[in-house]
């Protein structure tokens, strides 16, 4: 009598574990990749295609690739020549903005991104945040445009690249 | 007492000055605004005319009859630089229609397949479809067009070293050249047989539907339709002499002659637009299928319907109501995005009209023409889709 009551107080699930093919990774593969004939066929085909195409792609993009070399080595390399991007990075990001004044759009972008990340938290939305945005917008315009406080003026035809995309996208999306 | 108040009301009518009457004021304001708008319109119109006169630019559509004197890269109808502008514009319209028509059909097919794959119970298939959708939705379509054009134009070799994956197909930077069957009357008969088969299949579908509603028996319409649409043209081909001669492309000099050529511009435009728009269509299809509550599928399974029947009779009629309106938007998007062809050199309508504007200087007529043409085709597409939507609507009491 005592043994019986002893057994019922233990957790019955401890005693018998589920079969190995139903749980863990094998169970997941059975349920998600191979659950019927057509799915098994599709999985095999897809794995075959990935096996054939992914290693050469990774080899081209990451193993054989050049990241910071000068342009003359690009032609002879077998892999991707990413170094075109680091060598032209200032033009890609800032466009035609005058070279020595590029700290200004950089500062304007950091201001915009900082305000954006700060505003992510809905709890922080209050009057002061609204004023900060308006003030931030004024400062961004000032930094990009120049003309006041001793900053050299830069026409809006010379703005370009990433700061312009950020400004247009964020304010365009909000207005829409 | 009542008579008194009536008499006082009629003896003293409300009399105020002319401008205090609200009716008079409103008429005055509206007349003033109309006058100002009319003056503004007159000023713009006369200013434009004066400026055009000053620069000796003609107005009106008389330039249609002038000689075009520019070549167009590819055209569905025979065209040369000696033809008139109106013919050049027609070539542009046909090119736009060609890419839009083929693009819309391929987009709907590819988008449906990917949307259904996204809902598959196979984890690999579902995740791959999700990666495709996220990737192609998020990159701007112009960049995708540049990418495909760069691949077709810069990376493919010249015709002399063209890639030859299978016999009769050559890939080079002048386009994709492949062998086509040589012309023979049998192909004409096959096409008529196919059209006749389409009519037979339509009648068969209607008859089978009526029979199913009356007696509940299913007729294998799909298999019969496939047999009719494929078997009968093959039979006609066999009885007309089984012609097998192909027009194979041959490398002569610097280029291929013979066969059919798909230019890199057309290929890049079609591929870029189809892949981009299909990602959006896939999400629309997924939304439509998920909008049908799962209880319906379960109820259908519990009364023993096969899964093909569940899809056709229960899920699709309800899902199509949700799918068709956004799908119309995506079709119109594809039509309008085909105007980006001007960036990769495909001679669509915007590109041809642009050249015309540059040569004749008549920008206003040219742009108005572009707007009218795209408006016409967009309205046509959306009218057709709205008719289809009404047809698919579930008729309630």
Major sheet attributes of chain B = 3 strands, antiparallel
Instruction: Write down the overall geometry of chain B.
Output: globular
Q: Determine the N-to-C terminus distance of chain A.
A: 76 Å
Poorly predicted residue ranges of chain B: none
* Rg result of chain B: 31 Å
The overall strand count of chain A is 0
Tell me the major beta sheet of chain A: none
Describe this structure in words.
The complex is a heterodimer of chains A (176) and B (397). Chain A has 176 residues and is mainly α. Chain A has 9 helices and no strands. In chain A, helix 7 runs antiparallel to helix 8 and helix 7 packs parallel to helix 9. Chain A is flat and about 80 Å long. The mean pLDDT of chain A is 81. Chain B is mainly alpha-helical and 397 residues long. Chain B has 13 helices and 7 strands. Chain B has a 3-stranded antiparallel beta sheet. In chain B, a hairpin with a 2-residue loop joins strand 5 and strand 6. Chain B is globular. The chains are: A mainly alpha (176), B mainly alpha (397). At the A-B interface, helix 4 of A face helix 4 of B.
Q: What's the quick description here?
A:
Chain A is mainly alpha-helical and 176 residues long.
